[in-house]
Design brief:
Layout (H helix, E strand, L loop, with lengths): L1 H15 L6 E6 L6 E5 L9 H7 L5 E5 L2 E5 L1 E7 L3 E6 L5 H4 L6 E2 L17 E4 L4 E10 L4 E6 L5 E5 L5 E5 L4 E4 L9
Parallel strand pairs: 8-13
Antiparallel strand pairs: 1-2, 1-7, 2-6, 3-4, 5-6, 8-9, 9-10, 10-11, 12-13
Length: 188
């Protein structure tokens, strides 16, 4: 049982790791579990969060409660001016329950900021060792290393380390990199 709870929470946590809070639940509103939600002023101006919620009504909003990601399903939402909304959530349709959500930040996966395209994406790589040309299609960054996902002319994907020792020259204007990729890396 504990294992399934942990897995569920990991799935839930993964749903909001890329998200910024788009609103905060500020107070109860009325007597039927309605809540006044203040929208974050830093939201992308091209996105109408209320419209996005209505279009994605079957997708949950998320809060963090006791270090756990908790899904909330919207029963009703109504915009109130430019920076507020009145929201009712399933399972929180009375004020006593609604008070449990006060001051919680709201997250929504579909309101997550779009990742900016890495500068190296679409660079052409020429490998002196294999005498092949590749296209950088993704940059994978983690704590240990930066990796390039590259594609050959037959649409085969390879992952190689981005290491200064492998780079012979780079031309940012032409978006090209000449590398010496060690034997065997392209066969993994």
């Amino acid at each position: 049982m504990a294992e399934s709870k942990r897995n569920y929470n990991q799935i839930a946590q993964d749903n909001i790791t890329d998200c910024e809070p788009f609103a905060i639940i500020s107070k109860t509103y009325g007597n039927d579990g309605q809540m006044l939600v203040k929208l974050n002023a830093n939201i992308d101006k091209d996105i109408d969060p209320i419209d996005a919620i209505v279009k994605n009504i079957k997708e949950p909003l998320w809060i963090i409660h006791n270090s756990l990601a908790v899904p909330l399903f919207v029963a009703d939402i109504e915009q109130l001016g430019n920076s507020k909304a009145i929201v009712t959530f399933d399972d929180f349709q009375d004020n006593d329950l609604a008070k449990l959500l006060l001051a919680k930040k709201l997250y929504a996966k579909y309101l997550a900021p779009v990742k900016k395209k890495h500068i190296l994406i679409d660079f052409k790589i020429f490998d002196n060792v294999s005498q092949k040309e590749f296209l950088v299609v993704d940059v994978l960054e983690n704590k240990l290393a930066t990796l390039l996902e590259i594609q050959d002319d037959q649409s085969n994907l390879f992952t190689i380390p981005l290491a200064q020792q492998l780079i012979e020259k780079q031309n940012d204007k032409k978006k090209t990199i000449v590398m010496n990729i060690p034997d065997g890396i392209l066969e993994l």
